[in-house]
């Protein structure tokens, strides 16, 4: 990982811009995730997408949880997120607010649009996020 100061280098100098893709865990490995990644790539072609779902088998992530994700965000240049069932889930909300506190550009995937976000967001508590996941039939749609 690069240092925070190197992340702050101007975009003109850097070729390796990184976009953290914050999305509900229930969408990891799904067709929904693939479609969202295509939209991100279409809009931010010069960014590498950092997908926390790709780190699920990482021993350090299993041990550190959200702290690991926050370090991934710290090494990125921007964050983009999506809602699940019109809600910002617990982990996604924490990641958004962390990026905003760092002064990082934050974007939201909204239907066919991508919007800039500048203010801290409210999000579901962890227990409500888990309830939402349990009630969902979305798990049946994994690829």
What this model shows, in words?
The protein has six helices and five strands. It has 143 residues and is α/β, with parallel strands linked by helices. The protein has one domain (14-141): Rossmann fold, CATH 3.40.50. A five-stranded mixed beta sheet has the order 2-1-3-4-5. The longest helix is centred in the first third of the chain and has 13 residues, at 31-43. The termini are far apart.
Main features:
globular; 143 residues; 17% strand; 5 strands; alpha/beta; five-stranded mixed β-sheet
Give the topology, please.
Layout: H1 4-7, E1 17-22, H2 31-43, E2 47-50, H3 59-64, H4 66-74, E3 78-81, H5 90-101, E4 106-110, E5 113-117, H6 126-135
Parallel strand pairs: 1-2, 1-3, 3-4
Antiparallel strand pairs: 4-5
The N- to C-terminal Cα distance equals: 30 Å
H/E topology pattern: HEHEHHEHEEH
Judged by helices, strands and strand pairing, the structural class is alpha/beta
> Count of DSSP E strands?
5
The proportion of residues forming helix, as a percent range, comes to: 25-40%
Quick description:
This protein has helices spanning about 5, 30-45, 60-65, 65-75, 90-100, 125-135, and strands at about 15-20, 45-50, 80, 105-110, 115. It is of the alpha/beta class.
């Amino acid at each position: 990982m690069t240092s925070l100061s190197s992340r702050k280098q101007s975009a003109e100098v850097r070729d390796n811009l990184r976009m953290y893709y914050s999305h509900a865990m229930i969408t990891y490995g799904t067709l929904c995730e693939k479609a969202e990644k295509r939209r991100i790539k279409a809009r931010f072609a010069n960014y590498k997408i950092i997908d926390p779902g790709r780190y699920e088998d990482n021993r350090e992530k299993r041990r550190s949880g959200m702290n690991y994700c926050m370090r991934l965000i710290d090494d990125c240049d921007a964050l983009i997120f999506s809602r699940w069932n019109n809600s910002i889930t617990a982990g996604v909300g924490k990641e958004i607010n962390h990026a905003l506190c760092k002064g990082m550009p934050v974007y939201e995937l909204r239907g066919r649009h991508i919007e800039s976000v500048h203010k801290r967001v409210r999000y579901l508590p962890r227990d409500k996020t888990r309830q939402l996941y349990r009630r969902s039939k979305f798990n049946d749609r994994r690829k």
